[in-house]
Specification:
With 183 residues, this protein is mainly alpha-helical. 70% of the residues lie in helices and 4% in strands. The chain binds protoporphyrin IX containing FE (2 copies). This is Cytochrome b561 bacterial/Ni-hydrogenase domain-containing protein.
């Protein structure tokens, strides 16, 4: 089933969800590695195992646009939970979407504003401004990391709730996102 239904998320939503979850996991693994190991040989080896932080971030920004459009198109036929837990989950999902635009968007805007631009796999993805735009680089320097760590807290809460639903409440919620509807 390609589209979502009230019982489960469809194939397209699931592919978006798990592909982006892996990329986000990678982003935070690399960012945590910077914190612990700095720019050492360990991180140089780790960086060979996956895309660069910039490339994965740009890919996430490119994926969140069709994902948000797909979610909007399926909004009336997705699984819905009522009451406070359902509303809280929806608020967290909307915040996740917003941060998936803002966090990489700010970082890419910085590559424009610092005049360097950004090439990905030989393609000029973001041109350089030609001169430094202080307010924009300043804003990205100030906000990219704290917003990204805030995003990490939100995603951790989301994952913890998925585990609680599965292991404690045993209501089959996770099955909606792995492709076997509740029976
Ligand atoms: C959803 C996508 C992204 C996530 C989750 C993310 C996450 C993070 C995190 C957590 C840090 C802080 C590391 C620390 O505290 O030491 C960071 C730093 C950084 N990120 Fe990203 N990032 C994303 C996208 C991007 C993109 C697209 C670029 C570049 C085009 C980028 C460039 C940087 C740079 C240069 C730093 C170090 C300077 C700073 O802290 O602002 N990031 N990122
Ligand atoms: C790591 C980054 C993750 C992000 C950014 C994320 C984001 C989202 C979003 C936005 C939704 C709403 C549906 C949609 O629009 O796609 C969702 C649903 C869901 N996610 Fe995640 N997710 C992540 C990881 C995980 C993990 C690791 C699990 C399981 C352990 C998980 C379990 C679920 C479940 C069960 C739902 C359906 C919830 C419901 O029907 O109310 N997610 N996720």
């Amino acid at each position: 089933m390609r589209r979502d239904t009230p019982l489960a998320y469809g194939f397209v939503t699931r592919v978006f969800h798990w592909t982006m979850a892996c990329l986000i996991g990678w982003q935070f693994m690399v960012a945590s590695g910077w914190r612990v190991f700095g720019d050492s040989a360990v991180m140089k080896t780790v960086s060979l195992l996956g895309p660069s932080h910039r490339a994965a971030g740009a890919l996430l920004l490119a994926l969140v646009v069709p994902r948000a459009m797909w979610a909007f198109r399926n909004r009336c036929q997705r699984p819905v939970d009522h009451g406070v837990p359902g509303t809280s989950a929806r608020i967290v999902h909307v915040m996740i979407y917003l941060l998936l635009f803002i966090v990489p968007g700010l970082a890419l805007a910085r590559t424009y504003a610092n005049g360097k631009g950004f090439d990905l796999w030989g393609l000029r993805l973001v041109p350089g401004a030609g001169h430094r735009i202080e307010w924009l680089t300043g804003m990205a320097d100030l906000l990219h990391a704290p917003l990204a760590w805030g995003f990490a807290v939100l995603v951790t809460g989301h994952v913890v709730m998925a585990v609680v639903h599965t292991a404690v409440l045993r209501d089959g919620l996770l099955r909606r996102m792995i492709g076997t509807p509740q029976g």
